[in-house]
Fold:
Amino acid sequence: MRTLNDLLAGYGRFRLQGNPTRRKTYRALALEGQSPKIMVVGCCDSRVEPATIFDAGPGELFVARNVANIVPHYTPDRGQDSTSAAIEFAVTTLCVAHIVVMGHASCGGIQNHPHVEVCA
Structure:
């Protein structure tokens, strides 16, 4: 298991070395911004990393992750909801053409969520 010191050391290596194969991509994204055409709402389970699963590079997907890839229904004045805010940003600012809600097998978030009915 990684410790906080391991993460900090990894960040230090990234800052010094970066990812040489993607350095040009990162620089272009920093200067020009991102314009992905696909948004993915996915579970925060580490086994289902959207960029890895779809073989996508930096800037190709706009990703929002939460427990059980839940997209709450709209209600006015409901308060802050990061998933809804991410979707609104993706649609109104990034002009994504597609939104993919990506579930996965054996999702503990779905099994334990009080408002989700799991069908056999």
Notes: Strands lie at 38-43, 61-66, 98-102. Residues 1-33 form one domain.
